[in-house]
Here is the input.
Amino acid sequence: MTTITEAPALAPDGTARKLTYVKAFNEGLAQAMREDENVFVAGEDVAGYGGVFRMFDNLLDEFGPRRMIDTPISEAALVGLGVGAAARGLRPVVDLMFMDFIGVCLDQIVNQAAKMKYMFGGSVSVPLTITTASGAGLGAAAQHSQSLEAWLAHVPGLKVVMPCDAYTAKGLTVSAIRDNNPVVVMLNKVLLGSKSEVPEQIYGIPLGQAHIARQGSDVTVIALGRMVGEALAAAEELAAEGVEVEVIDPRTVQPLDTETMIASARRTNRVLVVHEAVTFGGLGAEIAAQIQDAAFDHLDAPVLRIGAPFSPVPFSPVLEKAYVPDQARIVRGCRRLLERA
Amino acid sequence: MAQRASKKSADPVANQTSAQLVRDLHERMVRIRLFETEAGKLMEAGKLPGFLHLYVGQEAVAAGVMAALRDDDQITSTHRGHGHAVAKGVSFRHMYAELYGRVTGACLGRGGSMHINDVTLGMLGANGIVGAGIPIAVGAAFAARYKDEDSVAVTFFGDGATNIGAFHEAANMAAILRLPVVFVCENNGYAEFTPQSKHMLITDVADRAAAYGMPSVIVDGMDAAAVHSAAAEAVARARAGEGPMFIEAKTYRYYDHQGVKGLRHPYRSDAEVEEWKARDAIDLLEARALADGTATRAELDDTWQRTRDEIAEAIAYAEASPLPDTADLLLNVYSG
Here is the structure.
């Protein structure tokens, strides 16, 4: 196995190749499959069709039906297949298509994959990668639009990554496959066609390490997944008014790099957490609690959370747009924090 | 500890004489019976924490199937998993130490009765979730084929587990992918305290295999030789790449669903229990062996005595073993 774990720097002149989020994922997966013969992909319509989101395009041509397996719609058996195969030394990538479907196979994820190493006294590892698409914005309504990272991040033994752009989609996917634990890769549906600079070589982005996407001195915005882009846009808007926003992308929500967040909170003294998931019981609560525990004396205001209202994701585009946090809400949140002395 | 088998290892089952097989089945059943009855006594004496789901009565199934397997064949088990673990060869020391919650246990004291495993012997864990081991065995079978090994996977489950979605999904998946996995339903007639007639409308669970295009066979689960014969056929089929097969073994558990005696409500009669005990699997095998001369009483008694001695030693080992260090509470939550 190659040992490249550090993501290579992008060309400073901005001439690096750009790829869409979904193509970056596809490229990372293909490279990880070339790197390790034990990596295979199983899921519904992943092989012949290439995945409903084109995530697995062309992989059947290169890797053949031994390593690209179309399965019945059977999420519990699919994840179980991954657990058993991983326990026997393979590195399965199983695709759950829409994140909402994890309810069907939560036992295999939560009670089997996550706990096997611990319950087996350490004698086995479960290097399983679960890929899935999360998030609202496509008018897919309440059963095809959720962001359920808080469910999974709550379970010891699992890791969860939420790439915010093409560059991180590739690097986090490669790291998830190389990792010896079960890792859920939450790809955001709205971002699938978005482009950013992506190095051609294989690279992994370290799991559990947050990224400071933009440096600033006045407010820290911690944004998950798709919200990173909204936060960066909000930061640009506020910069025009002389407010410098620091944007932190955790990249991995389990394990969560709270150290980077706490250090930022100590510098800016104001923190806003924003995620697409429902605010109640979301990761914003966890992040806010940890920051207040570690940096209370540095805060000029209580940590503020922005997330979705306590409702299923609505269908009608006007309702869906109102549901998902956006640049405007983040700007308003930052202003609220700044208004406090 | 078993050696990892080579890719195409010789089948130890072949070339075994019938006398050797009888002694093998007998020894496996005696080991389960004594392990379990002693564990029951320890539980009654208040020495063991947690739950204890005893396997006594069903020994012929674990013994019959495991005698048809190699060390590199994989099994997944149930919450009633001691019998499978013992028959697969997991050491008494590791098992008792785990029941006691000691750091020397099979799970370092992190798993307890319901999670005993030994991956070096292909024992991929007992499982606290009904039906959950079934898809995992399918995954183990997938891995064997992926790696071009000729090992098979066997999944044990009860009648109640066949009402769980994971069973149906895994059966279909195994059949569609033509994987080397054997489905062994230990039909003891009860899902916890609910009799079969109240949780499914069919008499033979094996009928369910037909829905997935899987051949099935029903065997007397009190007859270790019959179980072995069916298992040997299913395993040979799977090893030859002919796909999964379903075995329903009709059997019975002598003790309660959990613990030793807990008859809070009369979900079954004493007469029913006695009726099954009259066809006890070990008694049956011993009577046959003595009648046809494949074993002498002295040989059979020797097996019981050796096993008793080994168990006494293992319990002493468990009781003398250290408890886990609480500073290591987080050990093995993640792989490095």
